[in-house]
Design goal:
Elements: E1 15-25, E2 30-35, H1 37-46, E3 50-56, E4 64-69, E5 74-80, E6 86-93, E7 100-109, E8 125-130, E9 136-141, E10 150-152, H2 158-161, E11 162-164, E12 186-189, E13 228-230, E14 237-250, E15 254-258, E16 270-273, E17 277-292, E18 297-310, E19 318-321, E20 340-342, E21 346-351, H3 355-367, E22 378-380, E23 386-391, E24 398-403, E25 408-410, E26 413-416, E27 422-427, E28 434-435
Parallel strand pairs: 1-12
Antiparallel strand pairs: 1-2, 1-3, 3-4, 4-5, 5-6, 6-7, 7-8, 7-11, 8-9, 9-10, 13-14, 13-28, 14-17, 15-16, 15-21, 17-18, 18-27, 19-26, 20-25, 21-24, 22-23, 23-24, 26-27
Amino acid sequence: MLQLVTYASGGAAMVVEVGYAQAWDLETRVPWRPISVEEARERDAAGLPYVVVYQAAGQEAPLEVRLVSWRDHYVGLWIYDAQGRRSCELDMRMLDDPTRLLCRYVVRWHYTGPDMTEFDEACPRITVELFPDGRGQRTEESQGKRGGSYITVPRVGEDERWTDRPAFGEWPLFSARSHGLTEPPVFEITEPAAAAADDSGLAPTTCWRPPRPAQPGPIGELFRPGVRVTDGYHPDMTVVEPRRIGTLRVPSGLLAVSGPDLDHKDGPHITVPVPPGEYVLQEAQARHTYHCEWEESEVTRTDTTAVRVLVSEAPAATWEMALRPDDDLRLFIENQISGFDTDGATGCFADAGAWDPLLALFEKGLIQGDPDLDPDVYEDISDSMYLLRTRDQATGGELAAFATTGDGTYPVWVGRSETGEVVAVAVLVGGMLELLPEGGATAGA
């Protein structure tokens, strides 16, 4: 964890220049649209993003750069070493108490020499994740991404988990210890030569921004015949007509999406309110051709890419990731996912109002192989990613189980119309796909 430095006496104080900007370009290591300290103060009060750059006088590489975005409950910090490499990332979050910040995420890169490139795969690193309820995880990778990892529970006190939120302009230099400062630095504010007259336009994509949870990608397009996509392994795949695999009854008006193969004493992982009714089950599929080494020829096959419950024929204007009851988006790090867990490569759509009896029928039929189950309450589905359907006779609610391509956590994506109504609920069973440009394959394919 990062700790404030305790200064020794007898050393010379370093002069640290402090500049403000709307953004920081991580690639070029220069501020984007420098702003005055007063404009930065106004942005701070309004919750708008801005960056603070700390630089030793006469040195090219920054000491550290801080991104503040109160509207995103976020303060991030990059610390740079003498070679201009990012050596530490600190992620702090403002939660319910605006006077203090949670040290949510810290990663340190320990470069083995001055010639090792930034984020080299062999660079040792230590990552610490902390949560407000006292949980946490420390991951040590002594050989970087090329080796294994050692995971433990971090020994962190409350004074390290939380830090007081400084007032504007009163932030300490967090990197003082790593830069060997023994005396409090002398801060000098640097003003831009001329304030930017035009505040329109977006920052370059290389600019640092607050972290975002995983984004949906082209979900609707996976059900649109003729669209071309890639999964990263197959360079060119063409979406075909989606398959209709029966229907699902949800009389309770609460759709459950979960892994039926785990112990669910607390109910399903994800629930989505929908109008009570019976909805179409669909499979999205894409066709691709590849060279088969065993047959020594070109082979064409069709794979399922997603499954969904079609709630309405209206098109989805937006897609959002469904959250579990205890999820807090203020704690999500970059590209973090939420969803249902499975250790049997299986998910399901179900009527949450009949969850327990539907799950019991699933276990009797698929897991226990009970041959005496009434076909009115249990049926196998062949030639599909959908495996089976169970039906609760008391309520009419149903469960449809589907296969995934592996274990782990699968996000659940909720499609909404322009008026905000749920029109579809989908799961990508084979991972995220990328749209291909019309008329050509991906670069390098």
